[in-house]
Specification:
The complex is a heterodimer. The two termini of chain A are 25 Å apart. Chain A is globular, with a radius of gyration of 16 Å. In chain A, strands 2-3-1-4-5-6 form a six-stranded mixed sheet. Chain A contains six helices and six strands. The model of chain A has no long low-confidence stretch (mean pLDDT 92). By secondary structure, chain A is an alpha/beta fold. Chain B is α/β, with parallel strands linked by helices. In chain B, strands 3-2-4-5-7-6-12 form a seven-stranded mixed sheet, sandwiched between helices. A five-stranded mixed sheet of chain B has the order 9-11-10-13-14, sandwiched between helices. In chain B, helix 10 links the parallel strand 10 and strand 11. Classes of the chains: A alpha/beta, B alpha/beta. Chains A and B meet through helix 1 and strand 2 of A and helix 8, strand 8, helix 10 and helix 13 of B. Chain B: This is Ferredoxin oxidoreductase. Chain B: It comes from Heliomicrobium undosum. Chain B: GO terms for molecular function: oxidoreductase activity.
Amino acid sequence: MAKVVKIALAGEGGQGVQSVAEILTEAANEEGKEALYIPNFGVEQRGGVSIAFVQISDKEKVGSPKFEKADIVIALSDRAIRRCAQYVDGNTVFVYDTFIEGVEDDLPKGAKKVIGIPAIDTAKNELHPRVFNIIIMGAVVRATHVVSEERAKQALEDKLGYKFEQDPKLRELNYRALERGMQLVEGQL
Amino acid sequence: MADKPIQGEKRMFMTGNEVCAYAALAAGVDIMYGYPITPQNEIMHYWTRLAPKHNRSFLQTEDEISAGFTTCGGVLSGKRAFTATAGPGNTLMQEPMSMAEMMRIPAVFIIQQRGGPSTATVIYSQQEVTMTCYGANGEGLRVVYSTANHQELYDYTIKAFNTAWKYRFPTFVLGDGYQAKMRESLTMYDPELRGIKMVDTYPLVGLPGKAGADRDPAHLRNTYNTEEELYEVVKELVATYEKFAPEIVEHTTMECDDAEVVILCHGIVSRAAVEAIRELRADGVKAGMFRPITLRPFPAEPLRNVVQKAKKLLIVESAEGQFARLALPSLYGLTTPMETIFKPGQGITSDEIVKKIKAMA
């Protein structure tokens, strides 16, 4: 049976989890894998927790667009942490941002691993708030290996190339964000 | 219509709504009539972006009743025309749809089901099955294709125009909110390269020559004065529909030959079933799947043959038995034990199906 990696990315509207999902699945598609991405598009679209359901398979078409339990959950706000508890079981790696306060009791107990990363902090103080979601993308890429680093960079180029042309510094900033994201989860897995 | 918007074959990665717009373009559609409603909005959005580049047209109407009727009007004038809607829009559009049945208007409707009743959710369901197959006053003389993935959205959107124009019954592509909004891969192609010839369209009214002298009048009626008159017309419509049904009907099966438990499902739910069967087979459980692709006409005989051989039947759908009600008449008289997973307006995963079948065994 083909291995399908199931990822739930959850954050507040505006944190960019949907664009991460889009770039990531397009990268996987470009690599010849079967990818499926569906946004949670209920009332959350208009303020609330925004979730992206992503599945990437080596070859076979992915089944139903949503799933019960994820291999990796990335939750980027207190509400997202609570909302995503339902997707966690003993095989799930749960990643949250250490910037979020007062959630100690809400972190899932039965997860395979719970990892805190300072993504918001890194974006704010080291890079730029705009590339916060690319840091997250880096974390997903390293935690799941669903696409290679090169392909992830290519996908950024495909998506944002027209902006990079105008300001080459942006390319460097995005690449650095991707690498930093990968470093943040490295060693914690 | 000289240009070819889709050249050769191409692997794409996009949303289902986008796929529908491209498929309509590839099918040589002249005009879309539409009114926005979630989750099908982007069919309109993409069409309005693509159409001007390829010399096609679009008309936004004041509501869905109007979108349905203008689609019928466009078709009467000889245009390859379609509209798309969902949920409450589907409800409103039933009136023009039933007129299309009565007047044999080959209009194409794309439905991306959402949760009901009424406005309910903007997301997903399989709750528009009864309405799409049998809505409005009349006998449901329609063709309804229920798709499961983006490739099928593309294939059957193209096919719907040919079915409609060949048989002259209104034809539906029944997707859902998940298919509309999710992104996955598919291969787009120029239909001609695959040997698909688009059936010619022609005006059904306003023909040249003098009616009654040079040609028969194009007398398309939607109103009848007496019971007897209507009875005769409808009986003939039904007979024509039933004559064509064997040519139109489609279904697919998976591992049914030795299946002890047969999963009966349609549309996107079948993807969960396929995954579940792979898992169950790996565990030594003999499960199979029967999936109608046309919900109207319904593949009654092949279903009966499969269920007859099985020990158990499991009907799975994201509605409270709408699909089961379509299927059960074909199984009349059989004693195969049956269980169901009915989840109105909610998606179904392979895990649920696996769990259920293991509990049934």
